[in-house]
Batch of 2 targets.
Target 1
Amino acid sequence: MDKIKIAIQKSGRLNEDSIKLLKEAGINLSNGVNKLKTEAANFPMEIFFLRDDDIPQYVEDGVADIGIVGENVFLEKNKKVAIVDHLGFGKCRLSIAVPKNEQYSTIKDLEGKRIATSYAVILSEYLKKHKVNAEIHDISGSVEIAPGIGLADAICDLVSSGSTLFMNGLKEVEVILKSEAVLIGNNTISEGKKAILNKFLFRIKAVRNAKNNKYILLNAPNEKLDEICKILPGMKSPTILPLAEKGWSSVHSVVNEDDFWEIIENLKANGAQGILVVPIEKMIV
Ligand code: PRT
Ligand code: ZN
């Protein structure tokens, strides 16, 4: 039987969420995660634990069929692999920052400057696009200290809360890229593996849908049902069940997180009572 091989980060910012994603898709890792490789106990999947920087190459070479990396790593490594899905965690941005007292108004201010980064490929493409000539210093760690020690005039690095920049006396002046974890895949996997991948993607999607939606139950007087049903989108249409108390019904539906509070306020204003909101574990649409 075919097995799909997935590469995830061994340790670091994406490790925990990657394992959680597998768990939520019902995939149990059979033993410890401190090894190079393990197998799923109940799904045709092998899991490799690697440095994130190496994952695109392994997927291109077919050592792994799919992998989880930040979009920043995917773009920087520029390998022959495709993005299969966006995973919604590991969010950050790749930005240019300069010392906070430095005068900065446009990207032209970087002309002739030295910029330290671990993202030379993405940065040089960005500078080229904006017709700026700058000197790129490709360094592998602690990029944020480069201006302080006189190694560079600016940096290009990942930012999430901004506190690293702040602590190093830097200010963010350009956002080059907004990034999140992505599932990348080899373009030439077998039909058997493709079928397994689709099964995996189906499960991921069900979990994601569930997270974005809530199950809602409420009581309403029958004469208000029309209005209430108009407010509730539901998967098809709301379920309506009669209550023991005459003239009243129970209404069940699914609502999206984004419009959640607005819908609740609307429901209350239209006579809904005893509103219960319940998390959904999986949602297959
Ligand atoms: O050992 P390995 O090579 O596998 O890991 P790594 O050290 O290269 O990567 P790791 O674990 O630091 O990050 C993995 C991925 O997480 C990155 O490729 C991004 O896609 C994503 N990610 C999300 C981040 C951040 N947020 C982040 N804040 N990666 C790094 N940072 C660093 C940033 O480089 C800077 O030093 O955190 C600092 C900034 O954070 P704030 O909160 O102070 O702004
Ligand atoms: Zn790395």
Note: The longest strand covers residues 170-179.
Target 2
Amino acid sequence: MGIYIYNREQIKRIEDACLIAASVLDEIEGIIDAGVSTHEIDVLARNAIKKHGAVPAFLGYKGFPAAVCASINEVVVHGIPRRNAKLKNGDIIGIDIGVRYKEYYGDTARSYAIGAVGEKVEKLLLATRESLYKGIEMAVVGNRISDVSHAVEAHVVRFGFSPVEEFVGHGIGRNLHEEPSVPNFGAAGRGPRIREGMVFAIEPMINAGVREVDVLGDGWTVVTRDGEFSAHFEHTVAVVDGKAQILTRGKNFN
Ligand code: MG
């Protein structure tokens, strides 16, 4: 199908979906604490998405049973919200949310520490978040997609952390997942050239230990092979006036 190029009007509409996704995450942030279950987070997200007149894009996507992915500790991505999965001090959680609004999609994720976490885990959260912005800086007209990928990887390996290879960022707009793939690793200067009007989600999934992951028997939950923690941050960006504009801007994440 190739890579879609979106005009200003379409990007505005994708941004509308993205801003809903971001504001729902802002709302969720208010309840994330020890004792809260990932099911409660999912219910809040579903209601908030509907309140905005939007549709939870993950719910039913290839059979996924919830509106958010809630990934605790060694879960990298695609954690399924559950009533018996309650947050406790020392945990980290990644919340990934996708919405559809008037035929366009937005996708964003953030990771949080619950109470006090160790120094290494603090560093993992910070480095993963920083790596997202390193990638965004490289999403300029004339660069190639793997310039984004390389910038993400180069930032995190300095701390001894590892990007996940099996799961990657993606084009987004008319569909939740479109071309191109946006990996979080690899040599610079490869892949499609970045052009004005491209829209994609950049989403570093970074492991504290080895980069290998496994998918659990539920067919969704992705975990680190060595059991070390993993962090995830994601923005949807559009290439406008030659550089990446963040569409999923939130209160404390923009
Ligand atoms: Mg995504």
Note: The chain is about 25% helix and 25% strand.
